[in-house]
Design brief:
The protein is mainly beta. The chain has two helices and 16 strands.
């Protein structure tokens, strides 16, 4: 009788957990089977921030073949008309593919180099930074055997609030293929690597006046290789090129 009661209790708990687990529907997947980028992507233009001040549309910064997309950071010895010392490749789905509530997964391998700063992240359509929020699914610095997963917003950046936890440093082997993922839900953001939950950023109702959880609008995906910057430090030219090789990308919609 006691064993039966325990079995029933375990079954009830399992059913409850399954009922609470978000359900998703695949919206689109890109496995990079063609010779060019699909119409879901645009090359990221150059800007003035550390992460995009070397962005380039130069063909040497992009390679598509064998079902892989490579985004590459190089020493600029191919565009004499460009004064930038380095050139980097990056793509985004801005204006083409977004999710509001759902899940994004990216399978990628990162080749380390001093000063290399590959990132997989998300920004909101039509909203400014930091008020609109930022979701960093993965960032790696140089040769580190770890990656960073982070949330930025007015609450964390401008007001410098430290709670709830807004970032996680995860031990990993980035030079192997890993699946980096984020789930954006009405009450929380869940991060994971290879299906293993790393940390959760929750919505705190008492802090909504401070825009603590600005995540409830369409977000687009950015995947980019950058070299140099205040966070990662100066690149070592002899260690370049640096590559991020993307196997596939998946967008899921949250089922109601």
């Amino acid at each position: 009788m006691r064993k039966l009661v325990m079995l029933i209790a375990v079954t009830v708990v399992a059913l409850t957990l399954n009922a609470q687990k978000p359900r998703y529907e695949l919206l689109w997947k890109d496995s990079f089977r063609g010779k060019e980028l699909s119409d879901r992507w645009s090359k990221i233009p150059r800007g003035t921030s550390d992460w995009n001040n070397y962005m380039s549309s130069c063909d040497d910064c992009y390679k598509i073949g064998g079902g892989k997309l490579s985004l590459i950071g190089i020493v600029n010895d191919c565009l004499p008309s460009d004064s930038a010392p380095y050139l980097t490749g990056g793509v985004y789905t801005k204006g083409k593919a977004t999710i509001t509530y759902g899940k994004v997964e990216v399978k990628a391998r990162l080749e380390g180099a001093q000063g290399a700063w590959p990132a997989i992240w998300m920004l909101p359509e039509g909203k400014g930074w930091p008020d609109g929020g930022e979701i960093d699914i993965m960032e790696r610095l140089s040769h580190e055997k770890c990656v960073y997963q982070t949330v930025h917003s007015h609450y964390t950046y401008t007001l410098k609030k430290k709670h709830p936890q807004q970032s996680c440093k995860v031990a990993a082997n980035p030079e192997k293929y890993n699946v980096y993922a984020v789930e954006i839900l009405p009450d929380s953001i869940l991060f994971s690597i290879n299906g293993r939950h790393t940390f959760t950023y929750p919505r705190v109702e008492a802090e909504q006046a401070n825009n603590q959880y600005p995540f409830g609008s369409p977000f687009y995906l950015l995947i980019d290789m950058q070299v140099g910057g205040k966070w990662v430090g100066k690149p070592v030219p002899d260690e370049l090129p640096a590559r991020m090789v993307v196997d596939w990308v998946k967008f899921y919609r949250l089922k109601e």
